[in-house]
Structure formats: structure tokens, C-alpha cells
User: Which sequence fits this backbone?
């Protein structure tokens, strides 16, 4: 009776598994799986190389990052991702150019009339477009004065505190609709 059970046990799950590993398809599947893992490993290393080139200027550091991405397989990539620079070199350069452009605009300090938004120069007393009074002039030397100055820096004359009435823009009035409700 024991010999019958032993013979039927060989044809069960483990027997089928044993037959599979003894067949010619197992080495083929194993080699194919190893090949796929190696290709994926090299692709991840290539990705680390490409990403490091976009984020790091120094070629030695790019090489070190690539080796780190390859040498501890798959783990090195995660280590690289933890310590890589947070932004691309192109983004850093673009931000620096934007900051320089803003600094140049601020250095030029383009002045505009508060009413008509026409460009005016720092020495203008009135806007040449809408004749809005921009600054008062010194009563002694006639130089333009800033609103907060207490004394003229050109001739040392005390500035009289005059209220400069700046015109304000009124919001447009709403028209009443002709089909209004009674009430």
C-alpha cells in the first residue's frame, strides 16, 4: 500500500514541479529572466547618467553618480535619488536670467504717471500727457522735490508742506437697465 502512495505522490504538485525544472524550458526561462534583469539594471544606470548630466555641472560628479547608480544594483539608484540636486541646471540658469532681467528693470526704474500710466522722467513736475501734477518744485531753485523731503537737497531751503491734490480715477457708473422691476 505504501508503494502505491509513493508512486501517486510523484505525480502530484511536487512531481510536476520537479519535471518542470528537469525539462529544457527552465534554463531558457531562467536565462531570459536574468537577461531582462540585466537590461533593466543597465537602463536604470543610463537613466541615472542622463539625469545627473541635467542636474550636475561637474563631469566627475556625473561619473560618480552613474557608478553609484550601477554598483549597488537597484539600491544605488534610490541613494542617488535621495541626494541628487532638486532642480535641473537649465531651470537654475533660467531663474538667474529672470532675476537679472528684474534687477535691470528695477535699476532703470521706469516711472509712470499715476493717472494715465504714461512714462515720465524723474525730473518731471507734471505729466506731459494728462498734465497731472507729479511733484512740487523748490520755491528757491525750482528743482523737483520728492513728496517726503523736508528740505531741498540742492539749496537747503525748507520745503513748505503743501497738500498736493492728486486726481483720483472714478470708477465708471453703472447704467440703469430700462427693463427694471417696480418696487
Assistant:
Amino acid at each position: 500500500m505504501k508503494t502505491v502512495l509513493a508512486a501517486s505522490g510523484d505525480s502530484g504538485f511536487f512531481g510536476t514541479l520537479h519535471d518542470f525544472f528537469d525539462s529544457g524550458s527552465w534554463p531558457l526561462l531562467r536565462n531570459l529572466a536574468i537577461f531582462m534583469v540585466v537590461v533593466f539594471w543597465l537602463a536604470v544606470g543610463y537613466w541615472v547618467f542622463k539625469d545627473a548630466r541635467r542636474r550636475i555641472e561637474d563631469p566627475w560628479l556625473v561619473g560618480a553618480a552613474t557608478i553609484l547608480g550601477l554598483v549597488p544594483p537597484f539600491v544605488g539608484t534610490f541613494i542617488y535619488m535621495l541626494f541628487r540636486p532638486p532642480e535641473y541646471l537649465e531651470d537654475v540658469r533660467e531663474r538667474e536670467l529672470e532675476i537679472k532681467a528684474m534687477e535691470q528693470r528695477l535699476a532703470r526704474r521706469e516711472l509712470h504717471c499715476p493717472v494715465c500710466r504714461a512714462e515720465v522722467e524723474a525730473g518731471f513736475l507734471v505729466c506731459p500727457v494728462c498734465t497731472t501734477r507729479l511733484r512740487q518744485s523748490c520755491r528757491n531753485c525750482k528743482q523737483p522735490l520728492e513728496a517726503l523731503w523736508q528740505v531741498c537737497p540742492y539749496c537747503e531751503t525748507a520745503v513748505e508742506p503743501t497738500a498736493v491734490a492728486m486726481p483720483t480715477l472714478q470708477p465708471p457708473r453703472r447704467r440703469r437697465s430700462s427693463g427694471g422691476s417696480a418696487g
About this structure: Residues 1-9, 167-172 have pLDDT under 50 and may be disordered.
